[in-house]
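Supplementary Text 2. Reproducibility record for the structural model of the 384-residue chain.

All settings were left at their defaults, and a single model was retained for analysis rather than an ensemble. We include the record here because the model underlies the residue-level annotations in Supplementary Table 4.
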Amino acid sequence: MTGSADDILSPLHDEHVALGAALTSFAGWQMPLRYTSDIAEHTAVRTAAGLFDLSHMGEIGVTGPDAGRFLDYALVGNLSGLRVLGARYTMICAEDGGVVDDLIVYRDTDDTFLVVANASNHDTVLAAFAERAVGFDVTVEDRSPQTALVAVQGPRALEILRATDGLAEAGHDAETLKYYAAIPMTFEGNPVFVARTGYTGEDGFEFFLDAALAPALWRAFLAAGEPFGLVPAGLSARDSLRLEAGMPLYGNELDRTTTPHDAGLGRVVKLDKVDDEGDPLPFVGRTALEGRAQSEPARVLVGLEGLGRRAARHGYPVLMSSAQDAPRIGTVTSGAPSPTLGHPVAMAYVTPEVSAPGTELAVDVRGRAEPVRVVALPFYRRHR
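Retained model, structure tokens:
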């Protein structure tokens, strides 16, 4: 077990200890890294289901008559156009277009939104919202301390949801819930906000609820999910799953030096959003991002398939070839062996001229050039 005395404990901390989890410090929290083995937990999510504690994520409520208009200004997406009980992946950027954080925004009612931030950026996003809220009739509230977030991910997630004692669908059908949407449910009569988003490449559900209720729901999921192959899964499996699915991680693929366009996510920047008069809607970073959208990229995020056995890791240099004096043409952002595919995979920023799928390059893995091939992302896509 590693951790700091200053780490925040999850509402499910005692559950993790009882299950024998290896705990680690992550973004100021003490969270489960694994319970059994990384590969076993990863494989369970791909073939059956995994149960994740995501209570370290930041939950920020945005309410008021100007809530949608405020989010249009504060974020790069068109959030006023989001339907009630819809969800949208978006980003908050600095004036220079650099990514402050990537977010998921849920619309609960016309005037109520829930913004989910990465744990490492929780305080930064809150501070940016407070600064950007000036002049808007809106209330920004940190809901993280009283909110727990539990996820069931995997092909049997819906069956487990349906089998869980005390969990009831409150006038909505979870089976017909679309991807990137949400519904209200109840657990033992208490409200639960349920989303069908996720960060593993599999089907699944996220359950936002009062922190005091989280241990009972966690145990109910474990009991209901056992016949379906559900296992608790830690941060390590979550990282390898999202890598196979080609999903960016803040601090790796995204940071203040990176624009959404650099990461191949320019589609989330809505330069076409307009006000009631049809004029371009101002938002933080708009000028810089307009310029970036019209320019040729200096670097491109690509997938790399390892042709050998040694995995590339974050920060490793990408080389033009395996030759001893080959020039460096990029940097690995994330990399690991792929339990699903059986070979190493990585994401990296490289120069545009070597970014085409099929291009053979190399990665300096602790002094030895390992051959890799550029491939399209994601590495893994589930069968629907």
